[in-house]
Write a structure and sequence with these properties.
Length: 323
């Protein structure tokens, strides 16, 4: 009898418990919240969503950007992009930036992050600040400074190389077809190093202190603790870092445009500068916005395909680290 009474009391309380209020009253109460979202929605629609949709639409036209597009060409722009050797050369250059970031920048940033994560290191915050400064520096300013430093006619780098006897004549780092791309790759690794370092430092903060202390009590040295404790814990986050670094480096534009503009002889041309040249280069008598839009769509699809190809590998790594 007592049990039945308790159950009925619980049922009554559950029925009378206030639930989430819906309807016009809730909408009025949350009106300010929705209003604060309006600027974000407008900016996302105007500068992200609409350009994506417009690129697809314009890619089917032979359009110079003036007036409304009327010259429908269907898939002709896509066929021209896929058959252009210059596009594939630019795509390979873009992919080279990603390879340099993944195989050079990420490992070096991890090593320094492990070093800077130690509390016994003095002035570690200062070191972090110095390494992060290139990330926040304006790319245009970096381009001007790099061009001055690497100038074959009196640049500081060439003067040092000549004075030390490492070279017998000035090296045209940015003007030679064989040296321009490696030079830009090095500059891009240096500029993006700080943000990758921050990613690794954030990942290292997720390693539980009790695991590290247990490894130390068990007599595990630095390398064994790193191999069996630290790296397995940060592996899931490392996969996310890999994707972030890959996407950032594959879309390198501002550095190339500021330093070499894709030259010399298109030796440093990447897909973003390739698209920019056909859409906005003032030297063209008639810009080809339709062709540039098609190149952008193809580049986006290729980037998506490469990202999806990494999914099985990442899934296996996630499963292995979880087990």
């Amino acid at each position: 009898m007592k049990t039945d009474t308790v159950e009925r009391a619980l049922d009554v309380s559950a029925q009378s418990a206030p639930g989430p209020r819906r309807g016009p009253g809730a909408l009025r109460r949350n009106l300010w919240s929705y209003l604060f979202l309006v600027p974000t929605v407008l900016l996302f629609g105007g500068f992200t969503l609409w350009p994506m949709v417009a690129s697809w639409w314009y890619s089917f036209f032979n359009w110079d950007g003036v007036g409304n597009p009327t010259d429908w060409v269907g898939l002709a722009n896509f066929r021209e992009v896929l058959g252009a050797d210059a596009f594939w050369r630019a795509f390979w250059h873009s992919f080279a930036f990603s390879l340099a970031a993944i195989f050079i920048e990420m490992p070096l940033a991890l090593v320094l992050a492990i070093l800077l994560n130690n509390s016994w290191l003095r002035f570690r915050n200062l070191y972090r600040l110095v390494l992060f400064l290139p990330v926040v520096a304006t790319t245009a300013v970096i381009g001007i400074v790099i061009a001055i430093l690497l100038d074959p006619a009196g640049g500081l780098v060439n003067r040092v190389l000549l004075d030390t006897g490492l070279v017998d004549r000035p090296v045209n780092f940015l003007g030679g077809t064989s040296t321009a791309l490696p030079t830009l790759l090095s500059i891009d690794v240096w500029k993006g190093f700080g943000i990758t370092l921050i990613y690794w430092l954030a990942a290292l903060q997720t390693v539980p202190k009790d695991l590290q202390e247990a490894a130390a009590i068990d007599g595990a040295g630095f390398w064994r603790a790193l191999r069996f404790v630290t790296l397995p814990v940060v592996t899931p986050i490392a996969i996310v870092i890999l994707l972030l670094v890959f996407q950032r480096s594959l879309n390198t534009f501002d550095l190339v445009q500021a330093v070499t503009e894709g030259g010399p002889d298109y030796a440093t041309d990447v897909v973003p500068t390739y698209i920019y040249r056909y859409a906005f280069d003032p030297s063209l008598r008639a810009p080809r916005y339709g062709f540039a839009s098609a190149a952008g769509v193809v580049f986006g699809l290729l980037t998506l395909a490469i990202t999806l190809l990494q999914a099985p590998f990442m899934k296996r790594r996630m499963t292995r680290s979880a087990s």
